[in-house]
Write the structure tokens for this entry.
Amino acid sequence: MNILTDIKTKEDVRDFYYKHMQYQRNILIEELKIQKRFTRAEYVHLYKTLFGREPMSYETRQAILHSIQYYFDSIERAIRI
């Protein structure tokens, strides 16, 4: 799957996130593996698809990953309430 061309909607991002970006969050090594698995341009594309704008130029892959995680965590919390 080519992230930059195949992902066009929030639903595509959700499916991709749950298939390819899950890890045990209390293990730092696993987070680093996820961060390095994708390029910053791919993270920017996912971010832009979710939020409708590009992240700030100084944001790192880690910051973008955390923003994406927070987005989906918030939705899960809202559904559980």
